[in-house]
Design a protein that fits this description.
With 269 residues, the chain is an alpha/beta fold. It has helices at 16-28, 43-52, 69-81, 99-104, 117-139, 193-200, 258-268; strands at residues 7-12, 34-40, 57-60, 88-93, 109-112, 151-156, 159-164, 170-174, 177-181, 186-189, 204-208, 211-214, 218-225, 238-244, 249-253.
Length: 269
């Protein structure tokens, strides 16, 4: 991302004082620079504004009258999966218990109130980095991380690792980070699962909100008792799961993706 580019931010919070304080924090951030282009007091107002306007980032409260912030983020994620332009989301809330759900929705960050300027600036930097990677990939610039390069670059304890995509078994969203699994190791990295879904294309299959699996790594589909993570199933029920080749790990499969997993198994056989 070019230094001269300024992040356009939409504030969504039902408390006017909270929006005023957050606007001041955004204005105080220097690198990257950001400006608040609009405010909304409800998720519905935000959706209405987004029909006719664009922004780079939404700073989003969770608990609001009417549809809450998680529902708005879910709507935005569906737009992104359809290939439509979608702003990044950073949650800003007084409630920490929604963090796991927020990151399943590919939120870039989850900030708890009262927000410190340094913490907000770090979140803005992550958004700016993502926008820069997208712009570089779209322009085909050298160094852009695109599927054609055949690698995913991971920063691991001060080292920069280039992991061939052919070695990646799955990517899983966990809290603020992604876990990249190969046959030999698990690596923790920054990024958005939806971004990688678009970049990796048909070689990977979305089996759940929080997991992308290489089609070549799909080995078995079963119903397992107590399998966590199926958003449509109630607690204590059996859930669908897929076994991953080479590591014999099981990942939850949402019911809406079961047919796609079955198709991947049929194709591989």
């Amino acid at each position: 991302m070019e230094r001269s580019l300024v992040l356009k931010v939409l504030l969504v919070d039902d408390e006017p004082l909270a929006r005023m304080r957050l606007r001041g924090l955004v204005d105080a951030c220097n690198e990257p620079k950001a400006e608040v282009v609009a405010e909304a007091g409800t998720a519905s107002q935000a959706q209405h504004w987004l029909r006719d306007h664009a922004c780079d980032l939404i700073l989003l409260d969770v608990q609001m009258p009417g549809p809450d912030g998680l529902q708005l983020a879910d709507t935005l994620r569906d737009r992104q999966l359809q290939g439509l332009p979608t702003p990044a989301v950073v949650f800003v809330t007084a409630h920490g218990e929604h963090a796991l759900r927020a990151f399943e929705l590919d939120a870039m960050d989850y900030l708890t109130k009262p927000v410190r300027r340094e913490r907000l600036q770090a979140a803005l930097a992550r958004v700016a980095q993502r926008l820069g990677e997208r712009a570089a990939a779209a322009q085909g610039r050298p160094g852009a991380e695109t599927p054609d390069e055949g690698v995913i670059v991971v920063s691991d304890r001060g080292r920069m690792l280039r992991i061939p995509i052919t070695e990646v078994l799955y990517l899983k969203a966990e809290l603020k980070y992604l876990t990249l699994r190969t046959a030999q190791q698990s690596l923790v990295m920054d990024g958005s699962l939806s971004d990688y879904e678009q970049r990796l294309g048909d070689r990977f299959l979305r089996v759940h909100r929080n997991a992308l699996v290489a089609r070549s790594a799909v080995r078995e589909l079963q119903k397992l008792a107590g399998m966590p993570g199926d958003e449509e199933a109630g607690e204590g029920t059996e859930g669908w799961a897929v076994r991953i080749a080479m590591v014999d790990e099981w990942l939850a499969v949402s019911r809406r993706q079961v047919s796609a997993v079955r198709e991947a198994l049929s194709s591989s056989s």
